[in-house]
Structures are given as structure tokens and as C-alpha cells.
Amino acid sequence: MGVPAGATRAGPRTWRAGIVAWPIPAPAPIDPVAKFLRHLFVCTNERAPGDARGSCSARGSLEVAAALKEKVHACGLKRIVRVNKAGCLDQCAKGVTLVVYPEAVWYGGVTTADVDELVERHLVRGERVTRLEIPDNEQTGKEPPPGGPVVTKERLEP
Residue 88 carries which DSSP code? Predict the structure, then answer.
């Protein structure tokens, strides 16, 4: 079989007129959404030196995030629990801050010395570490006004 006029060889028994195109294998089916039992967001925000609120980054949040990730993997929770660095969680005045979802438990003043306890108690056994918990009434977020916007899973699904 000869080459058609103006065509190029694109791959095994494949011809394309005037372009080079290689056969692309079909992608393997994937689950479009990663599923984790728990998801941790560690504030790694950095503010200017001297800011009254301080910043989690200046208090060692990058080290806390790295230690959490290492401990989660060491406990066999890789791809079960996800540790992510986050931008500002608006709680920096309380020290290194992290939040655990789906429980929405907020921890403040976290250091690398707290990592083993957080992982073993909260992530492995499902127990809150109350000494590090930021109580709801001390968080800077606001409740939506009565009758205000309510976001539920049902509203987000088509």
C-alpha cells in the first residue's frame, strides 16, 4: 500500500492527511473524585513581620504539615487520609491552625510535638484532642443569618 498524496504516516496502519498524528490509547477509567475518610487542611499563611495576628507559617506550620503527612503515611493511612497545606484559615492568632473534615474540627496552637497524638487519637481512633480544639464560639467565622443562604449536599448535586 502506497502513501496517499499529501498524507503522512501517523502510526501503525494509520494515515492522516497533511498532519502527523499518533494513535492515542484510550484513557483508563478513573474515579473522577478522590475519596478520603478524612481531609486535613493546615494553614500555611504568611503575613508581614509584626502583624498583630501573627501567621501560622512563622509559627512552624510547614513543619507541622510535613510531620502530619509523614505520620499519616507511617500509620498506613495514605490515600485514606489527605493532608493539605492551605492558605489562610483566619485563625492565625491561635497559633498553627488546622481543620479536619468531614467532622469540621478545628485545632489551634498545634506543634510538631502534637502530631503523634493528633494522628493516633483523631485520625486512627476518631477521638477529638480537646486540649487543642478551638471552640466554636472562639472561631472567627460567622453563622449564616436566619433564612440566609444554606449550602447542602442536595443543593450542590444536579
Answer: -
User: Does a structural domain hold residue 95?
Assistant: yes
Please report, as a single letter, which amino acid is at residue 33. Answer: V
Nearest 5°: CA angle at 107, between 104 and 113?
140
Question: How far is it, in rounded angstroms, from Cα 103 to Cα 136?
Answer: 13
Considering its fold, how many domains does the chain have in total?
Answer: 1
151, part of any domain: no
| Residue 130 to residue 63: CA distance in whole angstroms | 22
Q: Which three cell numbers stand for residue 93?
A: 492568632
Q: How many residues does the chain have?
A: 158
CATH at 62: 3.40.30.10
Report if residue 72 sits inside a domain: yes
pLDDT tens, position by position, 83-142 = 999 998 888 888 899 999 999 999 999 999 999 999 999 999 999 999 999 988 888 776
**Can you give the residue range of the structural domain that contains 76?**
38-132
Which of 68, 110, 73, 70 minimizes the C-alpha distance to 89? 110
Which residue type, as a one-letter code, is found at position 48?
A: A
Q: Is residue 46 part of a domain?
A: yes
Which residues does residue 11 pair with via DSSP β-bridges, in sequence order?
14
pTM for the complete prediction?
A: 0.69
